[in-house]
Amino acid sequence: VAGQRAASRAAAMEEAPPSPRVFLNHLDSYCGRNIGEYLSTCSVGATLESPDEEEEGDENYSVFEDPTAPKRQVYEIVGTLSKPESTNPRFAKETYAASPQNELLSHLLECEIVLYNITEDASQIEEATWAASALHAEIETFAKRKLFILISTIMTWGNSKPPDPENPEIAFNDDDFRKRKSHPSFTAYINAEKHIARLGKTNKKKFLTYIVTSGHQYGAEEGLFHYFFKMCWLGETPAIPVFGDGKNIIPTIHIRDLAVVLQNVAEHKPDFQYVLAVDTSMHTLEELVKGISKNIGPGKIEKIPKEDAFLSKELTQMQLDMLFVNLRMEPFYVKENFNVKWVAEAGLIENIAQVIMEYKQTRGLMPLKVFIHGPPGSGKSTIAKELCKHYKLHYVWINDVISEKIAYLEKIVAKEADRMEEKVEEGEGEEDNEQEEGENIEAAKELLDAIKENMKQNKGNLDDEYLIKIMKDKLMSMPCRNQGYVLDGFPETYKQAVDLFKEGEEEEAKGKMPKFNQIIIPEFIFSLTASDEFLTNRIINLPEMKVAGTHYTEDQFLQTLRRFRNLNTDDVTVLNYFDELEIHPQFIDIAVYEDSENSLTVPKIIKEIGEPRNYGLTEEEKEALERQAAEERLVKEAQEKAEQEYKEAKEREERMARWEEWNKQQEEVKKQEQELLEAQSIPLRNYLMKNVMPTLMQGINECCRIRPDDPVNFLAEYIFKNSPDID
Question: Where in the sequence is the domain holding 573, given as residue range(s)?
């Protein structure tokens, strides 16, 4: 039996054909990356199986792989990159440069399937046309039939007249491709479609060409609609713009569904050259933007004139043209002839939760949720605010949240009078919206009155019932759900934690892990620890200006500290709650750092949390940082120059001082030498004056009187004759 299995395994390996090689341009682009990644993992020929066979295969699947079964084939992906500096995608076996063309052609000839996507970069139209023509010129050298699939855009239908002018509800389908008229800005696209389609008709046994016209792609990190997703996620605007009246219908398709359609085309090799790749939705621009705003943004939209759209720096002319398209389309051929396991057949809005999760996960935008726990005076607020600044999170402090909630409710209630006035002036309006708004105002008014009454009864404090509701509303708000938050000191008790984070109203069974709301539960718990003595000394040493107006006065601080110790020495504490959920707190002894500003504690927490999960710096922030860096560099250079000049001036001054000191010393030496010389010359002078000068002066006088011819000899003889020592 073992011999038979080995033989079967060897035969299967010998019979297994090589994986089909697929070329795809711009593997590092949004479309190229997602299509390439999908094709690199899907089984070759999977779309040729009937749904029943696939289900049966799934049921019979076992974790113990049959060694005799042939190895599952997947597509081998190769292609080009849009940016030479881009990292090679992990799913790509090889990447090539687009030039020189003769080298690229040699690589194309090695591939059974060539996919050219022109939906993202208009410069690829020329390259795609050349590639198809160059392959067609080599058709006689093909050992096997090759497929060339052009991924085009529904914008080549942009100016098409409705199929039935009397019934505008009728949608275009694949059969209408001959009637299509391109948007003026997409003429080059339709010309490329026609040219490539013609090339595929000359020798179908060796070279097939297809045109897959893609709806506007969404899903994963988002393509065209990323502008709206990003604006909603950032939460910096109260309403998301809808350009124009928003009533234009936009054909769309999930990027993974587009990849499945391409796989079907490659494997089915249909007789029909033109395939519409769109989902079954017929959403308007307003519906799309409203759905995105409601589920990830502020929940509101604002219609602005089309002209204002061109002022946006983030949208190109091509993207704006795509947003203004108005087409009804249905994927008739795809639904009737292909085996498509749809990711989002009904469209973006019906699958918005899944699409948002893909968007966040693919772009690394998962919320970061942190809870800072600790006694008063430990620096919770300072640390929480520093973390918010570093990670661009929302600071959540119970007092601020209460104030915000009251202000928000008062604002809603104040609009009631304005709403009634507008209703009288405008007459009949949108009844559903008015009814919903009226209900919101009534609910807001009721809650506001209840909060104020409760605070009045509790001397400015709120019962847990209202605290939990207000805090839960804050944590469930879109900004906290998108970016995340840092909770400063709340909840304080086990019960508060259970009520705040529980999911639903059902009671939990004893001994079981309590259910919790995964949307708002903290991911990181940091508990600051320190002795009462350390905390008291820290508060005592605080400047008076920091203590004024806070609870850090001596009596209040000690009272608050005692309350904290009592709450956290019970059998069941707030930290026990997180332990039960396997979210174990990390304890940080702030006394170890002896750092009143917590400048050492914050980096430790940042190291534990890891990298930020956001878009990073905006262009404006980058420019501001560059300006700041340039200013700091100029200031530093000026300081260094001033220091150098000061140093040189000081050195000159010291040199001059040393020079003057040296000159003084030289003068003093000369003076001392002169005095010494004079002192030493006195005995000699006296000797000469006594023994030589009298005779010498007489001789000189005599010499002057006589004036001999040889005065020197005369003087010498005179001194010799008249010297007193000579007898």
Answer: 368-609
